[in-house]
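Q:
My hope is that you can spare some time for a protein that puzzles me. I hope you can help me see how the letters and the tokens relate. Thank you; the sequence and its tokens follow:
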Amino acid sequence: MCMRKCSLLCAVLFSLSASAQISIEEYRDIVMQRSLELESAAAESERALAQSRVERTGFLPRLSADASFTTAFRRNDGADLWGFRVEPRLEQVIYAGGGVRAAYRQSLLQYDISQRNHEQTALDVRYAADDAYWTVSAMQLYLAASDEYVSIIRSLYDVVQERYREGYVAHGDLLQVEARLSDAEYSRIALKNNYDAALHRFNNLRRESDTLQVVLTSSIIDSLAMPVRVTMGEIVERRPDVKVAQQSVSAAEYGVLLKRSAYNPSLKAGVSGSWQTFSPNRSAKTYLDGALVVGVSVPIFHWGERRHAVATARRDVQLKEIALEELQEAISLEEADGWSALLSSYSQMQSSLRNVDIASRNLSISTYSYQAGQATLLDVLQAQISWIQIYTNAITARYNYAVAWSAYNRIAAR
């Protein structure tokens, strides 16, 4: 009978009028290549790199020039009405209170932080892709199970209808099976809507048409090896967000030096020259001049501004350290919950496979017994309900395991 079709968990996914076949690995690659989140993270990393190059110029001498041209409305004692001045300057900061070095080191840390953020975004996008893929796979199996359930009830309805015509069953029995068939068809419509929503999300992540159908070459029924549990030390070494938090502490420490440097003495030296007309300009002749300039700036009294500014920067360091500790505690809890979810879903999956086999045999026996007049219609209907519930639980267990598997790999930054 149609029971031969019931082992859907061990069969190929039901056929779709699809335009593409895609594996989980191919889907991940496509999503990551087209992800706007990753594009944004990459642009932020490039911006941070450019800013570090800006800060590096603080170590280098700077060449600039000023020029002016003047003209008068009337002559002054026979002088020409016009005059000009060109003054180039070459300056070098010798000491800026440690601010230049602190700003440069801080900018390098910000660049490294942006790269770690890019890695974290990649982990999140990869997990989102996995979740979308497994959801579509599960929805396809739910639909296939629903189709099988409708087919089973319709077969029973045909049998009961034939017996009703022959006068062997009451009209109430026929109405009961008809109501069950109608309910199964109604449930299938709801499942189809859930599948469409999952497909829309699936296609949205890869930036394709929402309605584009697809055949998945990977499935939640595929065997996913149980991952090895990682220690907290391994997570700290792997997780990009932990590295970001650690580097944020270091960047805040450079922020303290940067604040302090604004109130330290600074020293710079430079060479300047000028080419200009005499003033007043009586002969249109010009002359060259030059100077060596050494400048020292010493803050003396700012009403405790330095103390308060440095204290503010130190509080920033403290906040970053607290944030790091909170993140490590959150990750420890996340890892424990993720591992428990993985073990639980794996156990449910193993149990559900045995239950499906039992429910399938019970349904076959009940259906055969009813046709042979050895079981009641109620027995068959109860066996059908038991089969669809257990089968749905088996699909859910498979889906939960696949999602937990992807989630734990994300937690472990694998």
In short: Confidence is low (pLDDT under 50) at residues 1-19. Residues 313 and 378 are 75 Å apart (CA to CA).
